[in-house]
Design goal:
Its EC number is 3.5.1.28. This is N-acetylmuramoyl-L-alanine amidase. The protein is of the alpha/beta class. The protein folds into two domains: 35 residues; 191 residues, Aminopeptidase, CATH 3.40.630.40. Helix 2 packs across helix 7. The longest helix has 34 residues. It is globular and about 40 Å long.
């Protein structure tokens, strides 16, 4: 009789342990799901401060165009109720003046902002350049080993192609870009166009064009977040 009672107590203890463990698993999954905030987007205007990025054929600096477009994307997303965090909102480099490697510190600080916030997607805004001045068109890059990054890039490129129907560029995988490798959430780099192309440089600095481009980027973000 005593043996049966002990077996019953043991069985109840095991059952209680399993229930407790199940609660912990459910709590962990819930926390993980909450960590990726579906209504939050991080926008990363590339370069800034003493780092101009690419310099166009007519002398326009990438850092200024990146920020201008990013602020317009932010405004558009916030109108739709999205929460937006910017890695920078001024012409600054995210590094201390006495940093031994300012570029690396700048990148690490951008990555920290993204990883700490855990957004649905992070979008880094950049401008491209090439030796052939006739090359133009927006293109989206994603981390080679990120399926969700690829999906986000596809959603973004789709909207960019609808915005500029002469553009035939496709998304491109990359496994070397530091920002793409180190971020813990789906992250894409949007190269909005080529500053080495005088025609496209003029468009990228035009207020009306920037607004239309920002609209396409915002649509790409919302398409990914909703789906």
């Amino acid at each position: 009789m005593l043996k049966k009672i002990m077996e019953l107590i043991f069985a109840l203890a095991v059952l209680a342990g399993l229930l407790f463990a199940g609660d912990k698993v459910r709590t962990y999954v819930s926390v993980q799901q909450e960590n990726v905030r579906r209504n939050l987007v991080v926008l990363d205007p590339g370069h800034g401060g003493r780092d101009p990025g690419k310099v166009g054929a007519q002398g326009e600096q990438e850092k200024d165009i990146n920020l201008a477009i990013s602020l317009k994307v932010k405004e558009r997303l916030e109108k739709d109720g999205m929460e937006v965090v910017m890695t920078r909102e001024k012409d600054v480099m995210l590094a201390d003046e006495d940093a031994s490697n300012k570029k690396l510190e700048d990148l690490n600080n951008r990555i920290s902002i993204i990883n700490e916030r855990q957004p649905a997607v992070a979008v880094s805004i950049h401008q491209n350049s090439y030796s052939d001045a006739s090359v133009k068109g927006a293109q989206v890059f994603y981390f080679t080993h990120s399926d969700k990054g690829k999906q986000a890039a596809e959603a973004m490129q789709k909207e960019l192609l609808e915005f500029d129907q002469e553009n035939t560029r496709k998304i491109k995988a990359n496994d070397t870009y530091y920002l793409l490798k180190k971020t813990e959430v789906p992250t894409v780099i949007v190269e909005c166009g080529f500053l080495s192309c005088p025609e496209e440089e003029a468009l990228l600095t035009d207020e009306a064009y920037q607004k239309k481009l920002a609209e396409a980027i915002a649509k790409g973000i919302e398409s990914w977040v909703v789906n």
